[in-house]
Amino acid sequence: MDRIDHDIVVLGSGLAGLRAALEASRVSHGRLDVGIVTKVQAMRSHSVAAEGGTAAVLYPDEGDTLDGHVWDTVKGSDFLADQDAVELFVNTAPEEIRLLERWGMPWSRRPDGRIAQRPFGGHEFPRATFAADKVGFLEMQTLYGAIQGFPNVRVHHEWFATSILSDGERFRGITGIDLKSGDFVVVRAKAGIIATGGAGRIFGFTTHGHHSTADGLYMAYRAGLGLKDMEFIQFHPTGLVPSGILITEAARGEGGYLVNRDGERFMKRYAERKLELAPRDVVSRSEMTEINEGRGIDGPEGIPCVGVDLRHLGKEKILERLPQIREVTMKFLGIDPVDDIIPIKPAAHFTMGGVHTDLRGATELKGLWAAGEAACVSIHGANRLGSNSTSICLVYGRIAGVEAAAYVKAWQGDGIPKVQILEEEGRIYGATLRGTGDVNPYDVRDRLQAIMDRDAYVFRTGEGLSRALKAVRGLKEEAYRQVSDKVKEYNTNLLHVLELDALLNAAEIVLVGALARQESRGAHTRLDYPKRDDVNWLTHSLAHRTAAGPRLSYVPVTITKHQPVERKY
Ligand SMILES: Cc1cc2nc3c(=O)[nH]c(=O)nc-3n(C[C@H](O)[C@H](O)[C@H](O)COP(=O)(O)OP(=O)(O)OC[C@H]3O[C@@H](n4cnc5c(N)ncnc54)[C@H](O)[C@@H]3O)c2cc1C
C-alpha cells in the first residue's frame, strides 16, 4: 500500500475539479499542497465534450439582466431550484467568463470585438458564451494551462478513487487504485472536493462518456452522505441515432429546426412562442409524443426518431458555428447536415441530482465539499437549462476551492482510519478481484442500461418503475463480482466491475426516488400522475443508504422571490 499526503484532495479533473484546484491554489498563493485524483488522463474528462455554451449575463447594456437569468433558471427548474443558490450562481458567473478570458480562453467574438453569445433553450436572452462548438474542450485546456503556473498542484492521472475516509466526524482522505501499477493507494488529506461528474452511463442511450459511472455518488452514499433529487435525469432532445452522440443545442440556438416525418416544425404545437428553444424537458416530451403518435422518421437501424434540419442555415454558417456537428454526422452516419436532415431522439444527458450540499457546496461531512455535476446544490432543480452546467462547474468549483482552503488553514489535525482502509483493501482485492461467480459483468451492465432506457426514460409510469426497480435489485444480487483478468497492471476488467457496483446503486436510487415522486415536474414525467403537485411535492428528496436499500427523506425548497406558476413557453 502506498500512502501520500495532500492538504486538499480533489476527486475529478473536469471543469469543476480543475477550477476548484486552481482557486484553492490562488487564494493560498500556491502554499497549499493540492492533489487531483482522476481516473482518466485529466484532459479526457467528460467536460471536454461540452459543445454549445456557458451561460452568464455579460450585456446589461443590451438588455440582459441578472434577474432575468435567475428567473429563467428557476422557471426552467420547474421551481425546484433553491433560489438563494441560483442568485449566488448568476451573480458570480459573469466574472468567471472574464477570468477565463484572462487565462487565455479563445471565446468566439462579434464583429465589434466583444465576446459573442448565442441563444439557448429556456433562456429569454442570448447569454450562452461560446467558442464555436468546442466550448468544454477549450475551457478545459485554458484551466489546465492556468494550473501549470502552480507547482503545488499534483495531478494523479489514471488513479481510480474507491472510498472516502472519515473518522466519523471529519473527512480524512480517500483510498484508490493506481491503475497503471495496480497498487492500492491511500491519500491522506485535510479537505476533499468531490467533482466526479454525473451518472449518465446508467443509461445505454446517452451522450455521456464511458467513464460517467457515478463512482463519486456511490462513494458519498457509502460514506453515509445523502444524495439529493436523484430521480431527475435530463434527456437531451438531440442525441444522434443510433449512437447517442450529442448534437449540441447550439444547432437549434443557431436557428436549426426540429421536424417530423412530414417535414413539419412540430414544436409549434407544444411551445408556441419558444418553439425549438423551449427547455429540454418540454422539447424531449414533444419529440416522444410525435414518435409515439406515429409522426416519427424511420431512423438508422429502424429506430424511430425525429430530425434536426440545418439546411437553411447554409454551409458557411454551419462551418463557422457548428463544425464539430458536421464532422460527427459525417464520420458516424456518413451524412452532411449541409444537405441532409440529422436523425435524433432524446438521450440521457445530465444528472440533476447529486451529493447533497449547502449553499457553499459543503456536504454533510465536515471537510468535504462537492461541485459540478456530482453535486446537487440545488440550482438545476427538476430540469437544467442548457449552458448552465459548465458555468456552475466554474462557479462552484471556485466556491469549493475557497471554502476548502479556508478550512485547511483553520484545522490542522491528522490521523487516518486504519480499519476502514483494511476493509476497503479487502473489498477490492478480495471480494472483487478474487470474487467467484459466473455472471458476466458486461452482460449485467448491458441489461441494466436496457432496463433504464425502457422504464426510466422521458415518460415514466409506476408500473414501469416498479418493474425496473425489481429487475435492478435482481441484478445487484447476481454473481457478477468476478474479474477474469487477474493481472495487476492496468486491470480495466477490475475497474469495470467496481464501476458496475456504482451504476447499479445509482440506478436503484434514481428508481426509488422516481417511484416515490407521484407527480410530474421538470424532466420527471409520470403518465400516471401527469400534473405538478406543489402541495405535496415542492420538496427535495434525499436518499441515504441502509441495509434495506435507499431511505428517502425530504428537505424544503428555498424560495426567495419567485412563487411557482404554470410554465408556458
Ligand atoms: C456531450 C456533452 C455536451 C455538453 N455540452 C454542454 C454545454 O455546451 N454547456 C453546458 O453548460 N453543459 C454541457 N454539458 C454538461 C457539462 O459538460 C457537464 O455537466 C460538466 O462538464 C461536468 O463537469 P464535471 O467537472 O462535474 O465532471 P466531468 O467533466 O464529468 O469529470 C468527471 C471527472 O471525475 C473523474 N472521476 C470520476 N470517477 C472517478 C473515480 N472513481 N476516481 C477518480 N476520478 C474519477 C473523471 O476522471 C473526470 O475527471 C455537456 C455534457 C455532455 C455529456
Describe this structure in words.
With 569 residues, the chain is α/β, with parallel strands linked by helices. The chain has three domains: 2-232 and 352-409, FAD/NAD(P)-binding domain (3-Layer(bba) Sandwich), CATH 3.50.50; 238-346, Flavocytochrome C3, Chain A, domain 1 (Alpha-Beta Complex), CATH 3.90.700.10; 418-529, Methane Monooxygenase Hydroxylase, Chain G, domain 1, CATH 1.20.58.100. The chain has 15 helices and 22 strands. It has helices spanning 15-27, 66-76, 83-102, 135-147, 215-222, 250-253, 280-292, 315-321, 323-333, 388-410, 418-432, 441-455, 462-477, 492-516, 534-537, and strands spanning 2-11, 34-38, 54-55, 117-118, 128-129, 153-157, 159-166, 171-178, 183-194, 227-228, 233-240, 257-259, 297-298, 304-309, 342-351, 354-356, 368-370, 375-376, 459-460, 525-526, 539-546, 549-556. Strands 1, 2, 6, 7, 8, 9 and 17 form a seven-stranded mixed β-sheet that branches. Strands 18-16-10-21-22 form a five-stranded mixed β-sheet. Strands 11, 12, 13, 14 and 15 form a five-stranded antiparallel β-sheet that branches. Helix 1 links the parallel strand 1 and strand 2. The radius of gyration is 22 Å and the shape is globular. The termini are far apart. 57% of the residues are buried. The model has no long low-confidence stretch (mean pLDDT 96). Flavin-adenine dinucleotide (FAD) binds at residues 11-17, 37-40, 45-47, 49-54, 135-136, 160-161, 195-197, 207-208, 211-212, 215-216, 246, 350, 372-374, 387-390, 393. Flavin-adenine dinucleotide is lined by residues 11-17, 37-40, 45-47, 49-54, 135-136, 160-161, 195-197, 207-208, 211-212, 215-216, 246, 350, 372-374, 387-390, 393.
